[in-house]
């Protein structure tokens, strides 16, 4: 998968956070008709999101265990990259 899509999926998963958000709110913010950046669809296809019925709250979306693993791996990979400007020992 391409780095831009992965970075946007990380943004989506972080935006949802530890709890859950209403499905309508997530779709309103993240669904796109752009065929090159189908972030919601890619995250769903990869199993990073779960949809569940909240008591009296309608359908809610949360990050799945697989999504949390993806976030941990992305965080570890980001921590291993050199900071911009420090790639050659310069600031």
List key phrases describing it.
single chain, about 90 residues, alpha+beta, 3-stranded antiparallel sheet, about 50% helix
How would you characterize the overall build of this protein?
The chain is of the alpha+beta class. It has one domain (3-79): Orthogonal Bundle (Arc Repressor Mutant, subunit A), CATH 1.10.10.10. The protein is 49% helix and 16% strand. It has helices at 3-16, 23-30, 39-45, 65-80; strands spanning 20-22, 49-54, 58-63. Strands 1-3-2 form a three-stranded antiparallel beta sheet. A hairpin with a 3-residue loop joins strand 2 (49-54) and strand 3 (58-63). Helix 1 crosses helix 3. The radius of gyration is 16 Å and the shape is globular. The termini are far apart.
| Count of helical regions | 4
Average the pLDDT over all residues and give the rounded result.
85
Reported for the largest beta sheet, the result is: 3 strands, antiparallel
- Shape, per Cα inertia axes: globular
What is the name of the CATH architecture? Orthogonal Bundle
The CATH homologous superfamily is named Winged helix-like DNA-binding domain superfamily/Winged helix DNA-binding domain
CATH class: Mainly Alpha
Beta-strand residue percentage? 15-25%
Helix content: 40-55%
Q: For the terminal residues, how far apart are their CA atoms?
A: 31 Å
Strand order of the largest sheet: 1-3-2
CATH topology, anyone?
A: Arc Repressor Mutant, subunit A
Low-confidence stretches: none
Helix vs. strand class = alpha+beta
Roughly how many Å is the radius of gyration?
16 Å
Q: Tell how many strands the DSSP assignment holds.
A: 3
């Amino acid at each position: 998968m391409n780095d831009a899509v992965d970075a946007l999926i990380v943004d989506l998963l972080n935006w949802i956070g530890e709890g859950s958000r209403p499905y309508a709110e997530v779709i309103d913010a993240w669904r796109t008709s752009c065929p090159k950046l189908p972030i919601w669809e890619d995250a769903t296809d990869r199993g990073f999101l779960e949809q569940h019925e909240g008591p009296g709250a309608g359908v809610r979306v949360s990050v799945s265990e697989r999504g949390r693993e993806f976030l941990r791996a992305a965080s570890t990979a980001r921590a291993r990259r050199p900071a911009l400007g420090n790639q050659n020992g310069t600031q």
